[in-house]
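pinging the channel bc i need a second pair of eyes. not urgent but kinda urgent?? the chain im working w is below, pasted from the shared doc
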Amino acid sequence: MTSSVSSTDRAVEQLCLAFSAELISSGFLRGTYRSALDTLLALAIGQANLAHMARNLAFQKTYAALSASPPDELRRPVRVRSIAMSLGVPQETARRRVASMVEAGFLTQTDAGVLMPKSITETPAYIATAEATCQAIGDLYGAFRRLGALGAPDQEAGDGEFPHRYTMRLWGDHFLRLVEMLLPIVHEPFAIVLLFSILRASHATQPGAGKPVSASSLSRSLGLPFETVRRNALRLAEAGLCLKTPRGYLITPELLETPVWRQFAERHGQILKRFFSIMGERGLLGWWEAEYQAASR
């Protein structure tokens, strides 16, 4: 029995790593925002604007679907200083990057602080990201169910539209919690995105040999200065989380079996399982259970 449980736990950890390698690294690629840092700041600001409504179930249900973005009057501005401190980002760097996003129209500056307006969460890019994220979460849920790592939820799927926005708010909370819990291992929030980007390029959680990814390639794809990427990648290598090779940075299946990666994978898996537990408590897993049952027929 112990061997079986251990085997299932390890399979869950591998699924979780593959999930985050794809979803987190692709979510921070240079696209809507100029850099991964801008994406991280925008995410934290958007979450903070609605944090006071997190436990208001009436609000969550009213603004659950893509067709119902919360109005600006419900968004509470947040100080850039608070966001910088929560993420471990230098305050002047955060102030400069936020000012740039305000100028570009991604954020709105008020006397009370900064907020992400409703209009930004209604763009095609946001909607596409929400749909892709929820699909990835559903795929991971189905994999967990097939492994027996999750049981069927108590509640069925609700009526009406799929709760993309509700799920995205919970996912945003989860990611920021992931940053907070993994910082003692990787030291900087950039390094978490960087680590999963290297893991994604290395294909370490999949069959077949991966390939190293260079600091210059990571710099271009994430929109971060080369020196920032190089410095953080070297720290990851020194911590034993990746290998520095002549052609770039690499994570191998063998490296995933080392004590530092075992600690990382276990903690990461626990955080993701907690995310699914919260979704179950909020009655959201029924949507993915319906998809799982349909695919199983």
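so The chain is about 60% helix and 5% strand. and The first helix runs from residue 2 to 27. — does that match what u expected or am i reading it wrong
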